[in-house]
């Protein structure tokens, strides 16, 4: 069973999300790992959440799309933990990443939000 999203996520959007994570890693601030991401979303600090679809068991990240939807935070899936980990600057895979401070990736995050029709972050 794959993760459910209320919008269509294309490969292009997933690649933009990974690029946003890479940019925010150097010019802004990110949180890595499901526990840190969940806290960031619950505290309304996350601007964009990116999660891997190959997480096993998938129950680990299943709650994130629902939480993000409630708080109007864009949540984008990517194919692999290794891709997400590399974008976050890790040598290991990573199940989820939240961008806390956009830095230079603000424009990219707003583009992603517009494409999936989530109101822009402030």
Features:
122 residues, alpha+beta, 60s Ribosomal Protein L30, Chain: A, four-stranded mixed sheet, 5 helices, 42% helix, globular
How would you portray this structure in words?
The protein has helices at residues 11-27, 34-42, 63-70, 81-87, 106-115; strands at residues 29-32, 48-52, 75-78, 96-101. 42% of the residues lie in helices and 16% in strands. The chain has a single domain, classed as Ribosomal protein L30/S12 (60s Ribosomal Protein L30, Chain: A), CATH 3.30.1330. The chain starts with 10 loop residues before the first helix and ends in a 7-residue tail after the last helix. It has 122 residues and is an alpha+beta fold. α3 (63-70) links the parallel β2 and β3 (75-78). α1 packs parallel to α4 (81-87) and α1 packs antiparallel against α5. The protein has a four-stranded mixed β-sheet with strand order 1-4-2-3, sandwiched between helices.
Count of DSSP helices?
Answer: 5
Evaluate the radius of gyration: 12 Å
CATH topology: 60s Ribosomal Protein L30, Chain: A
Please, what is the CATH homologous superfamily?
A: Ribosomal protein L30/S12
CATH class: Alpha Beta
Low-confidence stretches: none
Q: What's the structural domain tally?
A: 1
Query: What form results from the Cα inertia axes?
Result: globular
Overall mean pLDDT: 89
Helix content: 40-55%
Biggest sheet layout: 4 strands, mixed
SS strand fraction: 15-25%
The N- to C-terminal Cα distance equals 34 Å
Structural class: alpha+beta
């Amino acid at each position: 069973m794959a993760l459910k999203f209320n919008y269509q996520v294309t490969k292009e959007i997933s690649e933009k999300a990974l690029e946003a994570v890479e940019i925010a890693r150097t010019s802004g601030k990110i949180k890595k790992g499901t526990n840190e991401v969940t806290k960031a979303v619950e505290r309304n600090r996350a601007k964009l959440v990116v999660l891997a679809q190959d997480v096993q068991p998938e129950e680990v990240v299943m709650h994130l799309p629902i939480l993000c939807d409630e708080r109007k935070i864009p949540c984008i899936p990517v194919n692999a933990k290794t891709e997400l980990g590399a974008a976050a600057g890790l040598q290991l895979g990573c199940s989820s990443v939240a961008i806390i401070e956009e830095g230079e990736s603000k424009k990219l995050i707003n583009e992603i939000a517009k494409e999936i029709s989530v109101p822009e972050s402030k």
